[in-house]
Amino acid sequence: MMSVRGRDALPTGPRSQVDPQRTAAHEMFDADVASNRLGIELVSAVGGAAEARMRITDGMVNGHRIAHGGFVFLLADTAFALACNSHGPATVAAGGEITFVRPAREGDLLVARAAERTRYGRSGIYDVTVTREGGEVVAEFRGHSRVLRPAPSSSGDRPAVAGHG
Amino acid sequence: MMSVRGRDALPTGPRSQVDPQRTAAHEMFDADVASNRLGIELVSAVGGAAEARMRITDGMVNGHRIAHGGFVFLLADTAFALACNSHGPATVAAGGEITFVRPAREGDLLVARAAERTRYGRSGIYDVTVTREGGEVVAEFRGHSRVLRPAPSSSGDRPAVAGHG
Amino acid sequence: MMSVRGRDALPTGPRSQVDPQRTAAHEMFDADVASNRLGIELVSAVGGAAEARMRITDGMVNGHRIAHGGFVFLLADTAFALACNSHGPATVAAGGEITFVRPAREGDLLVARAAERTRYGRSGIYDVTVTREGGEVVAEFRGHSRVLRPAPSSSGDRPAVAGHG
Amino acid sequence: MMSVRGRDALPTGPRSQVDPQRTAAHEMFDADVASNRLGIELVSAVGGAAEARMRITDGMVNGHRIAHGGFVFLLADTAFALACNSHGPATVAAGGEITFVRPAREGDLLVARAAERTRYGRSGIYDVTVTREGGEVVAEFRGHSRVLRPAPSSSGDRPAVAGHG
């Protein structure tokens, strides 16, 4: 399955028999080196919603011996990008806000679920909740998205990127 | 130098002759596996301010072929943690907000400068600007910090961690 | 009805026959001079959720001839305060974030619906959507709450207020 | 002085001898009914910075008997609007984030100072600190601005308003 990412150890069930609906978000995720190298798994991305998972490894721990908030943000940001790109047009993060609710520790499997709150013009707002297996909330994230303008045809095949994420 | 982090390629000058003032933030940074493995360099951390640098590697790029916003956040978050821990008491991130101003690309050397805006009770607000070498702004970050309460002596040597970062 | 607020012009139906469940939030609202003078109506406040309404008057318009964002924030903030105080303990706003989705104009009746996202320790996160009659979204708000510590009995009858809102 | 706003009681000194530089922000402020009725005074607005003042009246107090956070936000939002409109082109708030640091009380004179952090494309980020007379910080605000696109000449004299503030 092209949509399967991450380490064998992830308890993801009989995935080979599942064929989740592929969207533009899956294409984007296939090219997302950062998310793939961190072992982030795309569970689903369709209709403005998405789910992604990541296990906290020994390389993700900070000076307080808990998961570095940057990696928790990164997982939420990936789920957010999957959700807003599931509609089709290339969409980037204009910004995001995260609240750290509880610490995560090495070995924790984090699940990020993104839901669309609203869209208007080329903008959108998406909420992502990051939980530990078992359901305890680790972080709450709200992201602001922006659909890229298509590049003029004469200028090549790249959209004009106004933000990143 | 214990405070030197990151890859040889960083154009950081004759560091061995520099002896920046060491604070509690340096102790924390020495134990920050995540920041160290990503090649983040601590430039300074004293008096509520800090500077840290990171080069965007090929493993930090997302599906839009620009730096994953999560890594830009992570660098800002590390600079923020260095600034708020430079005062001494163990301090964690309660949350943060980032605006992505311009995309960063593979090979860019990013510099994050954190400054304290205000402190009140056990809380603090810190602003971090992330720039590319040359000065263009890549992101603006605002972090909310919280000083940990000391653990009761009977409960062991760990502070009660209410957030992470 | 003590819970009825605002101007006669509000199309709120046969309210005298309704008896919404009263919570600590209603007591707080009765003392909320600011919300009452602006004609904000408390529709409901129970179980961590709340609804409040306000009509944009000629005194709430800014230099762009649309509703001043401050009044839209104020309505959302009141709904947020009602939701987090519906649990009982006195709770204040530590902060909030608002995105202005569409302008509101003089005469518009705005409805703010607050829902609890999560609570942890003395903290909470609440989301508020402000719509115009008919359902168009005007603003999205996320608030951070903090339960006040009870004042020591020797120090009088006032809680120690750490924030406001 | 056209730029003088607010109540006689404001200790603003011999204003009639002062002639602050007038910018597009002053024109906007003259039409800002909301800010004027609340007694907000424009102190200065030029070069991306601004200062505004407001006294907390008996009608601005909430159910915790402190200034309603909505009015503190409103003052900060007005200072933000003055700062970003001081450049000339009509600019609105896309959103804002506020942290309530200390409560304000009836009678307090609040001062909001706005400074531009960065501008990019049609967007901008502005920081506003709200203090009490004497300097204690009451709130920290960060606003996101957006320059309006000029309306097509055939469509009349109104810009297309995408946000408000």
UniProtKB/TrEMBL annotation, chains A, B, C, D:
<feature type="domain" description="Thioesterase">
    <location>
        <begin position="66"/>
        <end position="138"/>
    </location>
</feature>
<dbReference type="InterPro" id="IPR029069">
    <property type="entry name" value="HotDog_dom_sf"/>
</dbReference>
<dbReference type="GO" id="GO:0016289">
    <property type="term" value="F:acyl-CoA hydrolase activity"/>
</dbReference>
<comment type="similarity">
    <text>Belongs to the thioesterase PaaI family.</text>
</comment>
<dbReference type="Pfam" id="PF03061">
    <property type="entry name" value="4HBT"/>
</dbReference>
<feature type="region of interest" description="Disordered">
    <location>
        <begin position="1"/>
        <end position="21"/>
    </location>
</feature>
<keyword id="KW-0378">Hydrolase</keyword>
<protein>
    <submittedName>
        <fullName>Phenylacetic acid degradation protein PaaD</fullName>
    </submittedName>
</protein>
<dbReference type="InterPro" id="IPR052723">
    <property type="entry name" value="Acyl-CoA_thioesterase_PaaI"/>
</dbReference>
<dbReference type="InterPro" id="IPR011973">
    <property type="entry name" value="PaaD"/>
</dbReference>
<dbReference type="InterPro" id="IPR006683">
    <property type="entry name" value="Thioestr_dom"/>
</dbReference>
<dbReference type="InterPro" id="IPR003736">
    <property type="entry name" value="PAAI_dom"/>
</dbReference>
